[in-house]
Design goal:
heterodimer, A: mainly alpha, MetI-like fold, 3 domains, two-stranded antiparallel sheet, 23 helices, B: 413 residues, alpha+beta, 14 helices, 11 strands, 55% helix, 20% strand
């Protein structure tokens, strides 16, 4: 299969020129011309405002690449194949996306959602089949027949589900949208670009362009990374840059954005509410993180001592972190209830028990957990700690299990007690894990949003007297309630800079202690 | 000799002492572990119990964990409520056997607060009188159970006759209206109907299936793009690969907070606001997932695929035929991570499904909407919470290993 290592020159002479080569050359010229038209005509790029500069720069780059691709294709160089393919893939993706979006393809998921709801029973059948086929391999025994039955049930369930949901029947509806005249040219470009992209992947293209083994590997790499990278650009990198740009503008989302330079950031420094949110969140982090990390370390140390039943305890501690923040927050909201909640009732009972024990008459405090400005943040802290301890425990446990046992054995011989071993072996050896745990907890704490938002609903998430106002809540209020999109973005970036700064400083401090060098 | 004996004795004593210390240590360890386990579990126990309560029961003070509701019994084929009334110093469960019994309100003249409504047929006039609120009233001998009391007659009333369910000879009397307000017998009575009721409420039903659909698509899509990307980063050399990979790894550092506003604007310009698509399409590309798969693929020995390469197999086949079957642990780990993320995410659905169309609700949004309404009783909200928590708990029960693995690998990175 693999040909002897020919040079690019000899390879080119071997095969004759395939029939698609001339159309490809024409196509290359057309694509370059298309970009040139886009760039020079007035209607070409209808986007106004902050994005315009970005889009113009992008199209200019695309024009340049398309021209280079055309020239290199003409010269039958591998570079022509690579660039041509890239341009075609991008063109096909963008135009295909536009056409499909125009045809409401992506919003078709809503209709699917309704049909899915009515046919949910088949999902149960599929899961049952999956469980049966999985069960067939339990205990090291393989029961092929049961496994086959399970697979049949799965496939049958899936087939019936697709049919019952009428997914096949929906295709004509989507196709009917092609009749929309504005879609036809865009879709046409997408199909032609996809066709040429496919041709350039093929074996005959590799021969024609004299692609070497390692060049072919790089080409495949491009292919495999493409779905991921396109999505990454569209839904991560692009929005990220966009966010930075609009943080320098004043924009309500309706009028064009107005460039204001650093004004948003300057305003932040004097914004009493923003500063209040920063103060709240710093105090929150300073209290909540140690209260989470210290018990987690203790629990991990206990779980690491090879007592029976460890797995059960570990599973129990882990439950809060998988249950979902909305659900657990609503549970705690009821526990925090000042009049009928269990928290105040327990405080009362415990106080009365001790009063009875010592003959004192201490009045039990009955705070209005969620609605009093002095304690509202404490309820958020309790909730955070309760949710996070188990997760951190599992992290610490994983770190402890990585510590060399021989260190403990050596300490045993030296007659070191449990505390000494913990203090002088576990803690120092656990430094990297501790760093990670503390850093993620800090990052998480600084971005607190869900807990105060749900606890305080339906009143303002800022809490009584702004006592649970966090930067992310402030961002939400600014961008989605006051429609100060530019200012909201500035809040987001200020918070990001804060998080990044704290992480870096913490990382440096830890680095000086030496674990990074070790 | 003696010194040796001494050392042996000393060693034995040390062993004994260390054993006692060990027992104390183990006991202490379990105390702490169980204590924390109780704190972690209680809210979930409370959740299930509250989901099974009646609306009134959720506002009870002092609060009770188990769901309690009035209990009934069947008398002559009819369901009648049970009452818990005092009889002979204790309390007994009784039902109303006869209404409209002519009775009087009798009061102890010494302590006018102590009053009793009792049938006239069990009272005999003594002929004496007593003074009550400045009026002269007759005194009766009232037969209450085995006890006879001399009480002043205040006014006439009507009572009901209550009879014990187990023992018909038990008999007591009370004003029916007051008994219905204060003395209905209660028992542990889970209200299973709450679950049916909540799924009929505000499209919780749709929210549940929508969440399942979104989660399936996000998990499957992320696995696909991550496996492809991870393979390219680990096995295929191309120009700029390491720079792109660095950008991916760096992007894990960037908090989602920064992306909320621009992603929202993107959804607006694509026309995806208030659609399920806004919860799925942007989340099929995950840098962390790509990183995870890449790390796992790197650890797969090269010679496994070399034979296939020499056979001229396409990379596509090598990836899905050799790499993927070897990588189930990493794939399952990533799947659990994405599952939790898609199932529990809140802030993004909050902004992108902003309420016009409850057909597109996911569970987190349905829950927070329910929780913010004072109209629905907490019992129904808690039933919805149970629905939302059950699925992750079930998945956890089957795939605990991979959840833990996920945490552990995130620590190593």
């Amino acid at each position: 299969m693999t040909a002897p290592p020919l040079t690019a020159e000899t390879r080119r002479e071997v095969g004759s020129t395939p029939a698609w080569f001339t159309p490809l050359l024409v196509w290359r010229v057309l694509v370059a011309a298309g970009f040139a038209v886009l760039l020079t005509t007035r209607r070409g790029i209808a986007i106004e405002g902050a994005n315009r500069v970005l889009v113009l720069a992008g199209v200019t780059l695309a024009l340049f690449v398309a021209m280079l691709a055309g020239y290199q294709t003409y010269r039958r160089r591998h570079l022509g194949r690579l660039l041509g393919f890239t341009v075609d893939l991008l063109t096909a993706s963008v135009t295909g996306f536009m056409a499909l979006n125009r045809m409401s393809f992506f919003n078709g998921l809503d209709a699917v959602g309704e049909r899915f709801n009515r046919n949910i029973i088949w999902l149960v059948v599929i899961v049952a089949g999956w469980l049966i086929s999985g069960w067939s391999e339990r205990g090291g025994l393989s029961r092929p027949r049961i496994q086959r039955i399970g697979r049949y049930i799965m496939a049958g369930g899936a087939a019936i589900m697709v049919l019952a949901m009428g997914l096949l029947g929906a295709i004509p509806g989507v196709l009917a949208n092609i009749a929309d005249l504005e879609v036809v040219p865009v879709l046409g470009v997408a199909i032609v670009a996809a066709l040429f992209a496919r041709i350039q992947i093929g074996e005959s293209a590799a021969r024609l362009f004299g692609t070497t083994q390692s060049q072919s590997e790089g080409f495949d790499g491009l292919l495999f990374i493409a779905p991921n990278a396109l999505g990454f650009l569209a839904f991560f990198a692009g929005p990220l840059i966009f966010s930075l740009v609009i943080s320098f503008t004043e924009w309500s989302g309706l009028q064009p954005a107005e460039f204001v330079g650093l004004a948003n950031y300057r305003e932040l420094l004097g914004d009493a509410l923003f500063l209040r949110s920063l103060r709240n969140i710093v105090i929150f982090g300073l209290v909540a993180v140690p209260l989470t990390v210290a018990p987690a370390l203790l629990l991990a140390a206990l779980l690491n001592s090879k007592l029976p039943g460890i797995r059960v305890f570990r599973a129990i501690y882990f439950l809060p972190s998988i249950a979902g923040v909305v659900g657990v927050t609503l549970i705690w909201k009821q526990l925090f209830n000042a009049t009928v909640g269990f928290l105040n009732y327990s405080i009362l009972e415990v106080t009365e028990f001790f009063n009875g024990l010592f003959g004192t008459a201490v009045a039990a405090p009955q705070p209005l957990w969620i609605s009093a400005p002095e304690v509202a943040m404490i309820s958020v802290i309790i909730l955070f700690v309760w949710q996070r301890i188990g997760f951190d425990t599992v992290l610490f446990l994983a770190g402890m299990q990585g510590i060399d046992r021989s260190l403990y054995e050596a300490a045993d011989i030296d007659g070191a007690g449990a505390w000494t071993r913990f203090r002088h072996i576990t803690v120092p050896m656990l430094r990297p894990t501790t760093f990670f745990v503390v850093a993620t907890d800090i990052i998480l704490a600084l971005q607190t949003f869900n807990e105060p938002f749900i606890l305080q609903a339906p009143s303002t998430p800022a809490g009584p007297g702004n006592s649970t106002l966090t930067p992310v809540i402030y961002l939400y209020q600014q961008a989605f309630q006051q429609f100060q999109i530019g200012y909201g973005s500035a809040v987001a970036w200020a918070l990001f800079i804060l998080i990044f700064g704290i992480t870096i400083i913490y990382f440096r401090r830890q680095g000086e202690d030496g674990f990074l060098k070790a | 000799m003696t010194t040796l004996d001494n050392t042996a004795e000393q060693a034995a004593r040390d062993r004994r002492r260390s054993r006692t210390r060990r027992i104390f240590g183990v006991g202490g360890a379990y105390t702490v572990l169980i204590g924390f386990a109780a704190v972690m579990l209680f809210p979930f126990v409370y959740m299930v119990a509250t989901a099974l309560k009646t609306p009134e029961d959720t506002f009870r003070y002092p609060p009770k964990v188990l769901p309690r509701a009035p209990i009934t019994t069947t008398v002559d084929g009819v369901d009648v409520p049970l009452f818990s009334l005092p009889i002979d110093g204790g309390e007994a469960n009784v039902f109303l056997a006869e209404e409209g019994v002519e009775a009087g309100v009798f009061v102890d003249p010494a302590s006018p607060e102590d009053s009793l409504a009792w049938p006239m047929s069990l009272a005999t006039e003594t002929g004496a009188t007593a003074t009550l609120d400045g009026e002269s009233v007759p005194v009766y001998t009232v037969q209450v159970g085995s006890e006879a009391r001399d009480l002043a007659f205040q006014r006439g009333t009507v009572v009901g006759r209550f009879v014990g369910i187990d023992d018909p000879s038990i008999e007591t009397f009370a004003v029916v209206r007051i008994a219905e307000q204060e003395s209905l017998a209660e028992g542990v009575a889970p209200q299973w109907g709450n679950f049916r009721e909540v799924t009929e409420l505000r499209d919780v039903d749709r929210a549940l299936t929508n969440t399942i659909l979104v989660t399936i698509l996000v998990v499957a899509g992320t696995l696909f793009t991550s496996i492809m990307g991870g393979y390219a980063f680990s096995r295929l050399r191309f120009k700029g690969r390491d720079a792109i990979f660095l950008a991916y790894v760096g992007s894990i550092m960037i908090p989602f907070t920064v992306l909320i506003i621009p992603l929202f604007r993107l959804m607006v310009s694509l026309g995806w606001i208030d659609t399920l698509g806004s919860l799925v399409w942007p989340f099929l590309f995950n840098a962390y997932g790509t990183f995870l798969m890449r790390q796992f693929f790197v650890s797969i020995p090269k010679d496994l695929e070399e034979a296939a390469v020499i056979d001229g197999a396409k990379r596509w086949k090598i990836l899905w035929g050799i790499f993927v079957p070897l990588s189930w642990p990493a794939i399952a780990t990533l799947a659990t991570f994405m599952f939790l993320y898609a199932w529990n995410s809140f802030i993004w659905p909050l902004v992108s499904i902003n309420g016009a169309n409850s057909d597109d609700f996911v569970l987190t949004i349905a829950l927070s909407t329910l929780g913010g309404q004072s109209g629905e009783g907490p019992n129904l909200i808690f039933a919805a919470i149970v629905l939302s928590v059950t699925v992750p708990f079930l998945v956890f029960a089957f795939a605990q290993r991979y959840f833990v693995e996920n945490v552990a690998t995130s620590g190593i990175k």
